[in-house]
């Protein structure tokens, strides 16, 4: 059973997770992209955009 919650900026995900990536979004024409290995084609993915201004 999938459970997702966001409370005051804290994110909780309860699901069967295969892998977690931490990567930087890169430019792609007039858009942007995030590269992942080809073996994950067809898999469901979540993309979280974090506010790095506090670092």
What can you tell me about this protein's structure?
By secondary structure, this protein is mostly beta strands. The chain has a domain at 19-55. It has strands at 3-7, 10-14, 26-28, 31-33. The strands form 2 sheets. The chain has a two-stranded antiparallel ribbon with strand order 1-2. A two-stranded antiparallel sheet has the order 3-4. Strand 3 and strand 4 form a beta hairpin. The chain is flat and about 35 Å long. The model has no long low-confidence stretch (mean pLDDT 86).
- Global shape: flat
Strand tally is: 4
* Helical amount: under 10%
- The termini sit apart by 34 Å
What is the multimeric organization of the chains shown?
Answer: single chain
Beta-strand content bin: 25-35%
Reported for the largest beta sheet, the result is: 2 strands, antiparallel
Helix-strand pattern, N to C?
EEEE
């Amino acid at each position: 059973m999938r459970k997702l919650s966001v409370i005051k900026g804290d994110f909780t995900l309860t699901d069967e997770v295969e892998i977690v990536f931490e990567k930087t979004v890169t430019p792609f024409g007039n858009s942007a992209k995030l590269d992942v290995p080809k073996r994950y084609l067809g898999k469901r993915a979540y993309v979280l955009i974090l506010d790095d201004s506090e670092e």
